[in-house]
Amino acid sequence: ETFAAALQFARHEGIIPAPEPAHAIRAAIDEALAAKEAGEERVILFGLCGHGNFDLAAYDAYLAGTLEDLEFSQGDLDAALATLPQGAPSVA
User: Fold this and answer.
1) Domain membership of residue 26 as a residue range
2) pLDDT per residue over 48-70, tens digit each?
3) With a threshold of 0.85, does the pTM exceed it?
4) 18-27: long-range pairs with CB below 8 Å, 24+
5) What's the domain count of the chain?
């Protein structure tokens, strides 16, 4: 879904987004569709923080149907997060 949204954005805006902000594009499209379905006007803002010029191989794999959609379990995520250094304490 993310790459499909990125391609839709590229076709309409002429900018190939990097995969990371493509998630925000997908969420913005989902919000716009929800607003349309509800008959509401909404202002939807998202951040486009990078171009996909260095990610063309990933786009090629997506279009060829060979891009692997990886999903990580909560255990995998927890294990990876446990290896990160601890940051400054939160300020409440």
Assistant:
1) 2-82
2) 887 777 778 888 888 898 888 88
3) no
4) 18/49, 18/50, 18/51, 18/52, 18/54, 18/55, 19/52, 19/55, 19/58, 20/49, 20/50, 21/46, 21/47, 21/48, 21/49, 21/50, 22/52, 24/48, 26/1, 26/2
5) 1
